[in-house]
Write a structure and sequence with these properties.
By secondary structure, the chain is an all-alpha fold. It has helices spanning 2-23, 30-37, 41-47, 51-80, 84-100, 110-116, 123-148, 159-180, 183-201. The protein is elongated and about 70 Å long.
């Protein structure tokens, strides 16, 4: 019975996320979610007392999923090479490959969607989003810091800013891909960041 309830909760979250990515949080009604999830109003409120609680659960779920994905790609890259620069270059290749293999245009970033409607969110959700961005910075930054233990950059850089740049490339690439209905835009942005990292840390002769 508990598993059935969890499945129902997950169905609500999946339907809500898809709707919010398509048209935003404020424009997505509980009634629409109920209809698409094939669930009663009582079933919805059993899991989520109100729409803000739904938003909190969505952000929590999305950030955890994103971190699991980024971490799995990082682990794969690190298993393929012991050289930290090569690990980062492989990481970017694997990210680009994953985006290239999507069957449809990237659906968008839930964090970005909520950020655009930040006035509708409470401090807890704002804090969760900020914490998620810091986690991305720390993970990307740890890989870049490993590079600098072996390689000297060809120009002065700040690790945190360079890590945030990757987040910006991913988010901006997703936006452009949706504008042009073409995932290759996101793929090429990831490859350009890879090129920059390669040029930045490859010793000049």
């Amino acid at each position: 019975m508990a598993q059935r309830g969890e499945d129902r909760r997950e169905k609500i979250l999946a339907v809500a996320e898809a709707a919010i990515l398509q048209k935003g949080f404020s424009a997505t009604s509980i009634e629409e979610i109920l209809e698409k999830a094939h669930i009663t109003k009582g079933g919805f409120f059993y899991h989520f007392p109100d729409k803000r609680e739904l938003a909190r659960a969505l952000v929590e779920r999305y950030l955890a999923s994103d971190m699991d994905f980024f971490t799995s790609v990082k682990d794969r890259a690190q298993s393929l090479s012991e050289d930290p620069l090569q690990q980062m270059l492989l990481y970017m290749n694997l990210l680009a490959e994953a985006m290239e293999n999507l069957e449809e245009v990237h659906p968008g970033c839930l964090v970005a969607s909520f950020t655009y409607e930040s006035q509708l969110l409470d401090d807890e959700i704002h804090g969760m989003i900020a914490s998620g961005a810091v986690q991305w910075r720390e993970m990307f930054g740890s890989m870049l810091a490993n590079i600098e233990q072996v390689y000297t950059p060809n120009t002065e850089v700040d690790i945190d800013e360079l890590a945030d740049m990757l987040s910006a490339v991913i988010e901006g690439g997703i936006l452009l891909s949706r504008i042009f209905s073409d995932n290759t835009v996101l793929v090429q942005q990831l490859k350009q960041y890879r090129n920059y990292i390669k040029l930045l840390y490859t010793p000049l002769h």
